[in-house]
Amino acid sequence: MMKFPSAKKMTLIAGAVVAINGFFPALWILFTSLKTESELMRLPITIWPAAPTLGNYTRVFVDQPIFLFMWNSFVVAVLSTVLCVTVSALAAYALVRLRIPAPNVILSVLLAVAMFPLISLMVPLFSVMRDLQLLNTWWALVFPYAVLSMPVCTLVLISFFQDIPRDLENAAMIDGCSRIGALWHVVIPLTAPGVFTAGILAFVNAWDEFLLALTLAPRVASRTLPVGITLYQGEFSFPWPIISAALIIAIVPICIIIAVFQERVVGGLTSGGVKG
Amino acid sequence: MAAVTIRKVRKVFGKVEVIHGVDLTFQDGEFVVLVGPSGCGKSTLLRMIAGLESVTDGAIDIGGVVINDFAPRDRDIAMVFQDYALYPHKSVYDNMGFGLKMRGASPSEIAERVKEAADVLQISHLLDRRPGQLSGGQRQRVAMGRAIVRRPRVFLFDEPLSNLDAQLRAEVRIEIKKLHQRFGTTIIYVTHDQVEAMTLADRIAVLRGGVLEQFATPDAIYNKPASKFVAGFMGSPPMSFARLTASADGKTLAMPSGTVLPARGGLVMGGLSGDKSYDAGFRPEHVKLGADALPGGVNTTARVEILEPLGAETLALLTVGGAVLTGRFPPQAGVKSGDEVTVSLGAADMHLFDTETGRALVA
Ligand SMILES: Nc1ncnc2c1ncn2[C@@H]1O[C@H](COP(=O)(O)OP(=O)(O)OP(=O)(O)O)[C@@H](O)[C@H]1O
Ligand SMILES: [Mg+2]
Q1: In what helix (H) or strand (E) does residue A12 lie, and over which residues does it extend?
Q2: What share of chain B is helix, strand, coil (3-state, %, to 5)?
Q3: What span, in angstroms and rounded, lies between the C-alpha atoms of B80 and B62?
Q4: Which of B229, B226, B253, B248 is nearest to B239 (CA)?
Q5: Are B120 and B113 spatial neighbours (Cβ–Cβ below 8 Å)?
Q6: DSSP state, B202?
Q7: Whole-angstrom Cα distance, residue B26 to residue B75?
Q8: Of B33, B123, B348, B356, which has the fewest Cβ atoms less than 10 A away?
Q9: Is B254 helix (H, G, I), strand (E, B) or coil?
Q10: Is the pLDDT at B15 greater than 60, yes or no?
Q11: Top-level CATH class of B240-354?
């Protein structure tokens, strides 16, 4: 008889594949950031840095105002996330609860919009931002980022909102809430995992974005991390270790944010409200 | 506390009209039960009073003010939902205090009122728990607690006991009755359980397909049903019916097999048309075992089809004079299915209904 690996073993194997696939590049970048440039170019390739150095990290801070870029990225990501989640929550709620005509058509259009290649939006966005005199400000990025993440955030929130029994909101409205009040006091707390999921999606999208950032806010004062990091390369040089160090620094805030909200995302808050 | 008046209220969902112009007036402090079969519009009517559904047409008036366009929170009502609808993320204390908090009560006032309500409902020891950590019966009490803490003018209940087992249901039923006696607040209570309706109500409104069939005291609903539908719906086991034909002079009625029954009281005086058919309804207690068991009864033979012993009594499904009737027999009557027995038919207590309209002929 053939012996299949047990379900538990299969899960472990699958998990290992995912973990290696995800972590190997990150680890490679981490190791690269600890090597000297000459070690990196040497053959045969070393995996573990022979003489680990933090010199690349110092260069990251010395060569470019990376704290400013980080601050710009942070503000843009936070503002666009807040805006995106707020609007998406209202949109998702309306689509789930209110008797609006053809919610499925609206959903499909939303999805279709999400499929637009970013490059096709760049020229119109540029001229809009120029006319609004928002080029090279945070807002030039906050608004597009919020809008770009809205379809996926709305979809995530819809799937969470659908599971909330209507009568919970009805009870809240009888208890003295307006509809928005019921959304805020009852629906949002109960769908916290979904709200945080949507928030993290929007945040990461904004944190990572390069093309719009380069086009709409390239000046130093409003430059974000992804754009800032590319500036470490010179005309004829590509300092891999320094760029790797900058990348590691760019990843850290995301890791911290996800770690902090992890518990909320996983938390099983919704059990036991109704019969059962 | 307030009176509630429903005037010519209609409700249309899309193209379907589910409430067809209902008129009802509930007195201040009255306990009214809305009953009817599934889908007859009880919940819809209740939710219109609560403000959770819009009123298509007509007016709903609480305490002398038409509240059609008021938001639920401005109606000063409280509602207990079938599935309780407790806030899962809040403690029992916060569940009960939420309504007061939203209305700007001070923390000390909230504490005092929640404590008082919790004492009444004997849930003081549960205040720190989350709804998920409570049994069904406890959740039910918390849901009632959340309603009474606010001291609203009207309580609305939508089948609050339907998720409880039979024993708990009987207990909480008594609890609800006590609450009404204690607070004296107007209660509008929806159920399809006619035992709840009979035991709790000051008055019962029977709905059928979005139309009010009868609105009267439990006693009148039981003893003077306005229609064949009400007669068959209220009572356990329900009334059973036989098609009778009036004699030419309208003074007697004949069963399908020919057994003749005298027409009851006032009906003789012109109520009955000669040679016309009527539906006669007999409550099980008016079909008794033994000759002359009922005063004014008519003795006739019956064949026992099925016996259902319930302990204190035995229900008997009988074929009597060509009709199938249910009788209430004593527990150890010594009859078996298949037996031919003599029963006394309570002709004086029989209800007559028009075969076409189903309306009762009032004696
Ligand atoms: N939102 C809605 N949209 C369309 N039709 C509805 C809606 N709500 C209820 N109905 C219809 O209205 C009718 C009455 O419903 P309602 O819930 O009031 O019945 P009910 O008497 O409470 O029944 P039950 O005893 O099963 O709870 C039903 O035929 C139902 O299908
Ligand atoms: Mg209902």
Answers
A1: helix A7-33
A2: 30, 35, 40
A3: 18
A4: B229
A5: no
A6: S
A7: 16
A8: B356
A9: strand
A10: yes
A11: mainly beta
Residues touching ligand 1 (Cβ under 6 Å) are: B 13, 18, 36, 38-44, 192
Residue range(s) in chain B whose domain bears CATH number 3.40.50.300: 4-233
Q: Which residue of B has its CA nearest to A192?
A: B89
- Write down the ipTM of this complex: 0.84
A274 vs B50, B85, B89: nearest CB = B85
Take residue A96 and report the two structure tokens written for it: 């789930």
Cα angle: B234, vertex B237, B241; to 5 degrees: 80
Question: How many alpha carbons lie under 13 Å from residue A162 in its C-beta half-sphere?
Answer: 7
Q: Which CA distances in Å does B234 have to A266, B162, B174, B279, B347?
A: 51, 18, 20, 17, 20
- Burial class, A147, CB count within 10 angstroms (exposed 0-12 / middle 13-18 / buried 19+): middle
Domain A58-274 has CATH 1.10.3720.10: yes
* pLDDT-derived band at B245, boundaries 50, 70, 90: confident
Mutate one of B12, B56, B87 to test the A interface: name it (highest A CB count within 10 A). Answer: B87
- Ion ligand 2: residue ranges with CB closer than 5 A: B 43
Gyration radius of chain A over CA positions: 23
The strand pairing partners of B278, in sequence order, are B244, B354
User: Tokens representing B97?
Assistant: 């205090």
- Is the domain spanning B4-233 CATH 3.40.50.300? The answer is yes
Residue A125, classed as helix, strand or coil, is helix
Helix (H, G, I), strand (E, B) or coil at B40: coil
Tokens representing A22 are 């995800």
Residue showing tokens 């008997």: B316
Classify residue B126 by its DSSP letter.
G
Task: Please check whether residue A206 is in contact with residue A149, taking contact to mean a CB–CB distance below 8 angstroms.
Answer: yes
pLDDT tens per residue, range B130-142: 999 999 889 999 9
* Tens digits of residue pLDDT in B52-105: 999 999 999 999 999 999 999 999 999 999 999 999 999 999 999 999 999 999
Q: How would residue A270 be classed by pLDDT, with cut points 50, 70 and 90?
A: very low
Taking the C-alpha atoms of residue A62 and residue A73, their distance in angstroms, rounded to an integer, is 19
Residues B213 and B227 sit within 8 Å (Cβ to Cβ): yes
- The shortest C-alpha distance from B109 to chain A (Å) reads 16
- Token pair 């009709």 is at which residue? B323
Q: Where in chain B is the domain with CATH 2.40.50.140?
A: 240-354
Return the residue matching tokens 């031919």. B340
Q: What are phi and psi of A228, to 5 degrees?
A: -60, -40
Query: Chain B partners of A264 at a C-beta cutoff of 8 Å?
Result: none
Q: Which two tokens stand for residue A112?
A: 């279709």
> What residue ranges do the domains of chain A occupy?
1-53, 58-274
Name residue, tokens 């290992």. A16
Structure token pair of residue B204: 């019962």
